[in-house]
Amino acid sequence: MDFFVYDSMSKNKEKLVTVEPGKVGMYTCGPTVYNYAHIGNLRTYVFEDVLKKSLRYTGYDVKHVMNITDVGHLQSDADEGEDKMELGAKRENKTVWEIAKFYEDAFFEDCEKLKIERPNVVCRATEHIQDMINLIKKLEEKGYTYISNGNVYYEIDKFEDYTKLANLSIEELEAGSRVEVDSNKKNPLDFVLWFTNSKFKNQIMQWDSPWGRGFPGWHIECSAMSIKYLGERIDIHCGGIDHIPVHHTNEIAQSEAALGHRWVNYWMHGEFLVLDGGKMSKSKGDFLTLSKIEENGFDALDYRYFCLQSRYRKQLIFSYEALKDAQNSYRKLKSKILSIIHSTKKDESLVESRIEVYRNKFAEQIRDDLNMPNAFTVLSEVIKNNELSNKEKSVLIEEFDKVLSLELMEEFKKDDIEVDEKLIDKLLEERNHARKNKNWSRADEIRDELEHMNIEIIDSKEGTKWKIKNK
Ligand code: AMP
Ligand code: ZN
């Protein structure tokens, strides 16, 4: 069974052919740990998590490596502005090391809530300085670097086809990244490999290097660490689309110049999450975190469900109304599944060939460049299909949930129930309608669904009321 992915380099959907059959080496750019991740960042990590789990579902053995940027990332993705870690330290009156530790932990707490699996290798930039120095040395030996005002720069004009990933002209790239005129650079798109302390005199994170004490540029960490852990040919490299014109373009220039051959076989980029009213910006401090949406009555998995309803290559517009709709349909879906589980009887049939049909249907969708909306349609078909036994349905749903990670088979938490009066009213309305039409089985089904949400229905002459059980 072939797996198809959209490759940002070829700009086509491609059949995945891995370096080693049956295995995937996957590198994803990790967070810059100077602040909380916003829900846009988290959308990208959800996409990468689903990619990994989809590959695994279809039989691949995946090795996933992700970096933690705890040094070297300046305010702009090019080389301008202040160091993000130092900015965080100043803002909170802490050391850069404390900031890095705190926000790395916060990031993984968010991931845990969102059921984003921890990568096989998580590598911190500050723990791989020597690997970066070695790579810069290699580039220097091969003539791709120059020193200007104490810093080591990468000379993009030495690298053939620098613009191939972005597919833009040099002028368009310059305009897009709004590079400032920097008299140290031969070409405005040249970028720093190593900053000596001529850049920031009081930089706290500093290491010795052949070029003087200082710290690495941002892009070199991903080249150095991905090659270290995944070898010279990487199957899939991911990130958000903002990384195409600068970060990934520069990663390619560094890695391919050093290695002397093609480095990544498939580039996959997640589109942005945008707010109803515009862009989210960390620097302005007005960004939405997972904790904020939790404070507003949502569960992390409501957000995961919301992300999975659209394709990763499409922009996703966030609003609380849209999240509420997602929460409602997620709960409806779960209560349907719970009622299947609860009504499963011991002696029900379990026919492998019937399971196989839907197992393959689901796989067909996820290996079509992660067609998650269609994968959910397959899940609905399973739920509705009267020819499948409840036992067979449960087996399938449990398998699908290995990719979706929505705790589809787990009981509702008590807290989930109280907030959702709108959904309960909707279900009651539907039940009344069913009763009017003498559709007793649907009416019973709804009573059952509500039961699993811990809601008891009381029918009387005055109408139908409901209450939370055990209260
Ligand atoms: P950063 O911590 O800024 O390096 O970003 C972490 C990841 O989030 C990167 O893969 C970015 O490309 C991605 N990203 C940044 N903003 C958004 C957004 N609004 N929506 C989706 N992904 C984003
Ligand atoms: Zn990177």
Automatic annotation (TrEMBL):
- Motif 'HIGH' region: residue span? 31-41
Q: Which reaction does it catalyse?
A: tRNA(Cys) + L-cysteine + ATP = L-cysteinyl-tRNA(Cys) + AMP + diphosphate
Q: Which Pfam families match?
A: CysS_C, tRNA-synt_1e
Which compartment or compartments is the protein found in?
Cytoplasm
Gene Ontology biological process terms from the UniProt entry: cysteinyl-tRNA aminoacylation
Where does the tRNA synthetases class I catalytic domain lie?
Answer: 17-327
Task: Copy out the cofactor comment.
Answer: Binds 1 zinc ion per subunit.
GO CC entries = cytosol
- What is the annotated quaternary arrangement, including any partners? Monomer.
Q: Which family does it belong to?
A: Belongs to the class-I aminoacyl-tRNA synthetase family.
What protein name applies here?
Cysteine--tRNA ligase
**Species for this entry:** Clostridium thailandense
Question: Gene name, please?
Answer: cysS
